[in-house]
Amino acid sequence: MTAAAASSQASIQAIGVSKWYGKVTALQDVSLQLKPGVWGLLGPNGSGKTTFMRLCAGLSKPSLGQIRVCGDAPFANPEVLRRIGLCPEADALYDELTALEFVTAMAELSGYSRKDARDRAVKALTDFGLDKAMERKMGGYSRGMRQRAKLAQSVVHDPDVLLLDEPLTGTDPTSRHVILDQVRIRANAGAVVLFSTHVLVEVEALTEQVLLIARGQLVAQGKVHEIRDLLEEHPHHVRVDCDRPRDLAAAVLASPEGEGVLGISFPSSTEVELETRKPDETYSVIAKMIVEGGFTVRSLTSPDASLEALFHYLVERSGRMAGTGSDAASGSAKPYQAALSPGARDTKKKGARA
Ligand SMILES: Nc1ncnc2c1ncn2[C@@H]1O[C@H](COP(=O)(O)OP(=O)(O)OP(=O)(O)O)[C@@H](O)[C@H]1O
């Protein structure tokens, strides 16, 4: 590593990165470039978030392609590793140690003297709201406290690149507030913060910049509002559990506002499920028909209100567009990041209707 690279700006770059574990493809041809700021890495379980974080943290090497952190490969590269902080998803703490002992030891591993390491540990633990509990053994900590101890160790050496794998897992609203504040402070100070989660609202509270990953592929990259547009664009399902589901379906279809409905099915004898491209209109027409027809409704739900549905939709659609069928993990589906890059919104819309 050169002196120039050692002082280069904080960044993460992936160039055609794939990672296999035996026959399992955990990541497939991921390319991206991240500058300072907070980046939300969104993906359902098993989509490759942790694998990507581990590659960035230098804990493993890509099977193909290159990862560069601050301009250089992180694997077995102490100069780069010194600039990286990782809060792993796994809850692997030493229960017999106090948080202060643990975070001090982590700072010493980063090369600080015992005294400096301890001072830094006290500051990091205080920043994460553990000032009163730092001398207690972590075995007695709640989940949220354990999470904050892990976060404190990830920032104790003031890293330029902060990798946070599902950092809000098991935290209560107060802990979340503290954690999100610290993430903002680090990003404002010039760090690249990669924040993984499967919950869109967690990211929305922090940043506009989102990377969507599914089945190991980067399926979309853009601003939160662009992702929201995609959510609106993809077919939405509304399920109603009521006394006369077939009559309700007929009433909705007969109404002029029911024209956005693309399909109807009856998952059980008391349920009707409508597929629509215009969820707002469909919700209002259902409500109107329920009142006018005097239906008795037990529940009205959307089975795909979560991001999970969007991931499946994007992966399937990108697979169809690339002519590879729905199993994008085994095909060469084109990710959406190009379509979602600034100035390319029209391309995306055209592609969406193709
Ligand atoms: N060490 C490993 N050996 C074999 N397969 C692995 C290994 N690590 C991950 N995988 C597989 O790679 C894929 C991606 O896993 P990864 O843990 O990166 O996903 P994730 O998005 O972090 O999931 P989660 O949200 O559940 O943590 C999964 O199919 C997983 O089973």
Automatic annotation (TrEMBL):
Region Disordered: list its residue ranges.
322-354
Q: What spans are recorded as compositionally biased (Low complexity)?
A: 323-333
The UniProt entry, under SMART domains, shows:
AAA (SM00382)
Specify whether Transport is a keyword of the entry. yes
**Residue limits of the ABC transporter domain?**
12-240
Concerning Gene3D superfamilies, the annotation shows: P-loop containing nucleotide triphosphate hydrolases
Q: What is this protein called?
A: ABC transporter ATP-binding protein
Q: Please tell me the species this chain comes from.
A: Sandaracinus amylolyticus
Q: What is the lineage of its organism?
A: Bacteria, Pseudomonadati, Myxococcota, Polyangia, Polyangiales
